[in-house]
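*** Query protein ***
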Amino acid sequence: MRFRWLGVLVCAALLVACGDDDSDFATRPSDDSSSSVCEDCDDESSSSVTPKSSDSETSVSSSSTKSSSSSVKSSSSVKNESSSSVNLSSSSSDISAVEESSSSEDSSNSSSSDSEESSSSAGEAASSSSSVELNCSALLEGTDGWSWDIPKECRFNPDITYGTMADSRDGQTYKTVKIGEQTWMAENLNYADSTKTPSLLKRSWCYNNNVENCAVAGRLYTWSAAIDSVKLATDADNPQDCGYGKICTLPAKVQGICPEGWHLPTRAEWNTLFAEVGGGLTAGNVLKSQTGWYNKGSGTDGVGFSALSVGYRDINGIFRDDGIYANFWSTVEFKDNFAYRMCFYDDYESAGLYDFNKINGVSVRCVKDDP
């Protein structure tokens, strides 16, 4: 079952547009005990929507939630089988007692870390289906919501002309798309090499710990993995101790785990994307993929962003809500334990930036550096 009532507050008030210096569509941070609630905000149309929350976020009163009798759609929980470990000092990583326990307590039975399913196997899985001519119409016929059996090639908009980008670190290639003045990855990052990038160790996963799922939808990363906290901590010119339980001053552009020439998007860059597709109230409809969302929640994918409803990994190590949510990290912190991510939800045509626990495993999209 999909515990819908546990997910109703993850994307808070997606129709709400709160005032912010970055744009006219942003959230007002909630208090210390809440992580995704935009309260007393006015949007462009003066309409509002009830906030949603997951079990990794503090719930709000029942008057601002969907009824718990809503149909439930939750993936089964799976333990992460990761056993590799590394001795990193607190100044060069963000491993706190909370994050360490959430990522390592379920790792006792595997001979190698899931985050070290090396780039060779991940790359082969990601590229194998691209060499096969697919009959996507036949594969998608009769499907309702999300299926991990559908290759990623069948989720792209066939009417969009995509570019390509090669990641020199592992040889994987990604589709890209230019939207306005920005160039975005049109699929989720699937970089896994924790030897080259120690920040990934025990901080990235394939959904349900199945490497074939990474070939479909990329990996899920904690925020500290996404920003490459170890690299930031060891920067000779401006060392920053960032991650869970910490607040730091990040540089204006953070490459994070993105390939060379690309970077993790800022809050302002997400808002620029929203503005380009007509504003936050309709951004979800335009940016979501044409298939793969429950409740008839698929979008037009009008500009080729192709956001997939691949769910996330919560702070307890449970993979959840595929078919319901798409989440993507930004560089912006909210508090010591929370950072902003961009969120889509199956029931809404809107999109917005909301805070999320940094330990959650979330997708990553990279944006190309300015020329």
In short: The two ends are 47 Å apart (CA to CA). Confidence is low (pLDDT under 50) at residues 1-132.
